[in-house]
Write a structure and sequence with these properties.
It is built from 15 helices and 14 strands. It is elongated and about 70 Å long. The chain starts with a strand and ends in a 15-residue tail after the last helix. An eight-stranded mixed β-sheet has the order 9-10-8-11-7-12-13-14, sandwiched between helices. Strands 1-6-5-4-2-3 form a six-stranded mixed β-sheet, sandwiched between helices. The protein has two domains: about 130 residues, Response regulator (Rossmann fold, 3-Layer(aba) Sandwich); about 230 residues, P-loop containing nucleotide triphosphate hydrolases (Rossmann fold, 3-Layer(aba) Sandwich), CATH 3.40.50. The protein is an alpha/beta fold and about 375 residues long. A hairpin with a 2-residue loop joins β9 and β10. This is Septum site-determining protein Ssd.
Length: about 375
C-alpha cells in the first residue's frame, strides 16, 4: 500500500540521522532494512519522550501508531517530513484500510500514512532522495511510428549526447523486437545485468548497486534484453528499475516498443515527452496512427522526430489521437538526418560533430525540456 494520506510532498533535506519512533519490533524489522538500502542513517527510539532531542533536527521522522498518541500528548512542535508508518499485519483484516490512522496523522501533522511491506518503494524513494538531497531524474522516451523508423537510434543518440554533456544517463530498452540497444551501443559483449537477471532478483533494488551492475561505458548505463533468454518484462520489475535509475542518474531514456505493454505504459506515463520516429514517405505518417493512439492515452506530450528524408506532415493529413484523451495535434520536435557515420560513432561511444551533432543536441534538449502535466481524460480505457 502506497501513501494513503499525502497532503504534502516531502522534499529533500540535508543528510543526517532520521528517527523511527516505535516500540513495535515488527515495524522496526520492516523499516530498518529499507533505510539501510537507501543509505539513510536511521535511529530507533522506543519511548516517545526520548524523541524530543531529535524531533526538530532529524530530516525525516517516522512514527509508529503504538507511540503516535504519546507524541501528540507531548505536544512536539510542528515540522515537515513526518510519516505515520505501520505494517499490514498491524492493520489486521483489511490491510488497505488505514482510516483508523487518519485522525492520529492529522494530529501529528504527518505528511503521509504508509503500511509496509506494500509501501517499501515509496519509503525507499523518500529516504534515498532525502539523504542525497536530490529529486528524481527526468525521463524521456522514443518509439518507432512504423518499422525501421529508427527510434532506437534516437534514444541512443539522446543518451550519448547527455553523457557528453556530463550527465549520468541510464538507457532502458523495452523493445524486444529490436536488435538490442546494448549492441547498438557497442556493449553487447560487456558483462552486466540484463532484464532476466533483474526480474529474478528479490528485495529492494539499491540505486547505486543497479548502476554498478549494468553494462556501461563512462556515464552511459544500459538496461537491455538478453538475446539468449528473451522474456517479457514485468511491470513491477520495470517500476523498481526505473525508480532506482531516476534516483542514481541525471537522465533516463527509454526505447519503447510499438506494441504497448504494461511496462511501456508505465514508462510513457513517467516520461516528460515521447518522441515518435517518422521515416520517409507519406505512408509513414499513416502507419504511425496506431502508435500515437496507443501512447497518447498515457502522455499528452507526443511529438514527431523526422528521420532521413522524411517530410513534415502531408497536407490534409490528420494524426488521430485517442478519443478518451484531451488531444492536441502532436508537433514536429526536430529531425535526425540519415548519416552512415552515426551508428558507427554511437557504437564507439562517440557523438558526431557539425550539423549532425547540433541536431542531436537540439533534439535532446527539446525532449528533456520540462513540460506542464496535462491531465488525460479516460472513459474506462484499459491500462
Amino acid at each position: 500500500m502506497a501513501a494513503i494520506l499525502d497532503r504534502r510532498t516531502a522534499t529533500a533535506a540535508p543528510a543526517a540521522e532520521s528517527i523511527l519512533v516505535t516500540a513495535d519490533d515488527r515495524l522496526a524489522e520492516a523499516v530498518l532494512p529499507v533505510a539501510a538500502a537507501a543509505g539513510h542513517p536511521l535511529r530507533r527510539v522506543e519511548h516517545a519522550a526520548d524523541a524530543a532531542a531529535s524531533w526538530q533536527r532529524a530530516p525525516v521522522v517516522l512514527v509508529g501508531p503504538d507511540l503516535g498518541t504519546a507524541c501528540v500528548e507531548l505536544d512536539f512542535p510542528p515540522r515537515d517530513h513526518i510519516v505515520l508508518c505501520t505494517t499490514v499485519a498491524w492493520l489486521g483484516n483489511d490491510p488497505t484500510d488505514a482510516s483508523v490512522l487518519w485522525p492520529m496523522a492529522f494530529q501529528l501533522q504527518a505528511a503521509g500514512v504508509i503500511a509496509l511491506p506494500g509501501a517499501d518503494d515509496w519509503l525507499l524513494d523518500l529516504l534515498t532522495r532525502t539523504v542525497r538531497d536530490t529529486e528524481p531524474a527526468p525521463v524521456i522516451a522514443a518509439v518507432a511510428g512504423h518499422g525501421g523508423a529508427g527510434a532506437s537510434t534516437i534514444a541512443l543518440a539522446a543518451a550519448s549526447a547527455a553523457v557528453q554533456d556530463g550527465r549520468r544517463t541510464v538507457l532502458i530498452d523495452l523493445d524486444r523486437t529490436g536488435g538490442g540497444i546494448d549492441a547498438a551501443a557497442g556493449l553487447a559483449s560487456q558483462p552486466g545485468w540484463r532484464w532476466p537477471s533483474l526480474a529474478e532478483g528479490s528485495g529492494l533494488l539499491e540505486p547505486e548497486r543497479l548502476l554498478d551492475g549494468l553494462p556501461r561505458r563512462g556515464g552511459l548505463h544500459i538496461v537491455g534484453p538478453d538475446p539468449r533468454n528473451p522474456a517479457d518484462i514485468p511491470a513491477d520489475v520495470f517500476d523498481q528499475v526505473l525508480r532506482a535509475a531516476r534516483i542514481a542518474a541525471d537522465l533516463v531514456v527509454v526505447d519503447l516498443p510499438r506494441d504497448r505493454t504494461d511496462a511501456a505504459v508505465r514508462a510513457a506515463t513517467a516520461a516528460r515527452s515521447v518522441a515518435v520516429a517518422i521515416g520517409p514517405g507519406d505512408r509513414s505518417w499513416e502507419a504511425a496512427r496506431s502508435v500515437t493512439a496507443a501512447y497518447g492515452l498515457y502522455n499528452a506530450h507526443l511529438g514527431a522526430v523526422l528521420r532521413g528524408d522524411a517530410r513534415a506532415r502531408p497536407e490534409g493529413f490528420t494524426w488521430d489521437g485517442p478519443r478518451e484523451a484531451d488531444w492536441a495535434e502532436p508537433p514536429v520536435w526536430g529531425a535526425l538526418p540519415t548519416d552512415r557515420r552515426l551508428p558507427v560513432l554511437l557504437r564507439q561511444g562517440r557523438v558526431p560533430r557539425g550539423r549532425l551533432a547540433r541536431a542531436v543536441h537540439d533534439l535532446t534538449a527539446e525532449l528533456s525540456r520540462e513540460r506542464p502535466r496535462r491531465g488525460l481524460v479516460r472513459t474506462g480505457a484499459p491500462r
